[in-house]
Amino acid sequence: MNIPPRTVAGCTLLVMTLGPAVAACGGDGNPLSAAPYDAADQVSFNAPEGDGKKADPDKPLEITSEDSDGRITDVVAVDAAGRHVAGELAADGSRWHSTSPLAADARYTVRVSTEDEDGAPGRKVFTLDTGKPRAQKRLDVTFGPKAGKYGVGQPITAELSRPVRDTAQRAVVERALKVESTPAVDGVWHWVDDKKLHYRPKDYWPTNATIRVRSNLQGIKISDRLWGGRAKPLTITTGDRVIAVADASSHWMTVYRNGKEIQSIPVTTGKPGFETRNGVKVVLGKEYYVRMRGTSIGIAEGSAESYDLPVYYATRVTWSGEYVHAAPWSVGSQGYANVSHGCVGMSTGNAEWFFDNVREGDLVKVVNSYGDTMEPFGNGFGDWNLDWKKWREGSALVGGKPETPKLEETARLRPTAV
Q1: Residues carrying an active site annotation
Q2: Judging by DSSP bridges, how do beta strands 363-367 and 279-282 pair with one another?
Q3: Residue 7 confidence class, pLDDT cut points 50, 70, 90
Q4: Cβ–Cβ < 8 Å for 349, 313
Q5: Alpha carbons 212 and 180: distance in angstroms, whole number
Q6: Is the peptide bond before 145 cis (omega within 30 degrees of 0)?
Q7: Does residue 166 share a domain with residue 92?
Q8: What 3-state DSSP class applies to 377?
Q9: Helices and strands, counts by H and E, the chain
Q10: How far apart are CA 167 and CA 278, in angstroms?
């Protein structure tokens, strides 16, 4: 096969320019194109190899270059579960050390890449086993909610088996709790208390998303006496974006699906002294029948405000007893006045429609009430009542740090020529 003249000229120019590297066009003489040599005698480790010896998971892994004219170019350390160890390489390539903890009772494969003074690549691959933790206290994690399909407002929860108070220890835990969604969104964990975290995106979840939650904490050292335990992974999906807005001043509820109004319902909300909470609430569940008593919200039995009623088509939005439900006794006031003890009441037919068209994780937003704002935590899911800045402040990893602009936002922020 004839070589086109343009190719020959290009190669000749390369030979003239590079001098001794005559074989550059063929590649046989270029050290960067050669197979990596065995770099076993050029690197040393602080971890034992072979003979059943195990590395101490309490100590960082260190790899040092023993060749004064060579250097380490890359280190990849990963365990059998696919967890990578973060590390830091010295600027001169003389030393690499791990910056994230090794898991206890795990096997790691470590690939070390080097190059000699001529730029030829070397490779050393070794395995190491880590020992069992000295302390046997485990931190187990339980994710919530249960697997299933939810509305776009459903937060992810993580319940810890033991309290974690120290900020650095919280960072270790939080870094190991992974949430991935398809389509992808940015989200952050928020520490509700010493044993509970919630995770949510900046805005609601996308419609028809798949959200996968897992923990990489098993075998990871959290403190001198506490090590990560097991956690069952979780997968949930979302449905349509359903948001019901109840206006306490107009006495109407408007229901939207994916931004489009699908129903408008006359309602009554809490009367003076029993005002319905303002803000965003997440549907917690649905109960066809509930017996509601005034004593459950502190009303003395036998008082003028006392009640004991059978209630149907009850959609719960707080643990303290706030529902959207059928209230046939107040139909005459629905659309005109607020006469309830804090719930959003409507006719039986409308309550049945609402009951049938919402699911756990959907959103109920109350506006223009004289009531307090829904609590962020402790009485259901009021998570969305915290703005994004406040939410991020509850993270042990990003709390107090400015949000990194997305790529397209960075482009918009660049100064333009004038």
Answers
A1: 325, 343
A2: antiparallel
A3: very low
A4: no
A5: 5
A6: yes
A7: no
A8: coil
A9: 5, 27
A10: 33
Same domain, yes or no: 253 and 230: no
Residue 21: both structure tokens together: 């590297």
For residue 143, give the 3-state DSSP assignment.
strand
Residue 285 is assigned to a structural domain of this protein? yes
Q: Which helix (H) or strand (E) holds 85?
A: none
- Nearest Cα to Cα of residue 360 among 146, 201, 215: 146
Copy the structure tokens of residue 241: 């974006």
- What's the sign of the alpha-carbon dihedral 393, 399, 402, 407? negative
**Residue 221 CA neighbour count, 13 Å, CB half:** 20
* C-alpha to C-alpha distance for 399 and 329, rounded to whole angstroms: 49
Structural tokens at position 289: 């029948």
Pick the more confident residue, 30 or 380: 380
Q: Is residue 59 part of a domain?
A: yes
Residue 329 to residues 79, 94, 251, 275, 345, Cα–Cα distance (Å): 64, 80, 16, 19, 9
Any idea which residue has 């480790």 for tokens?
45
Selection from 214, 152, 205, 154 nearest residue 182 by Cα? 205
CA atoms of 47 and 77, how far apart (whole Å): 13
Judge whether residue 104 has pLDDT over 70: yes
Between the CA atoms of 343, 346, 348 and 352, what dihedral angle is there, to the nearest 10 degrees?
-80
As a whole number of angstroms, the distance between CA 328 and CA 352 comes to 12
**Do 203 and 256 belong together in one domain?**
no
Task: Tell me whether residue 2 is in a domain.
Answer: yes
Tokens for 385, please give them: 């009542």
Q: Please give the model's pTM, rounded to 2 decimal places.
A: 0.74
Are 134 and 56 in contact, with CB atoms under 8 Å apart? no
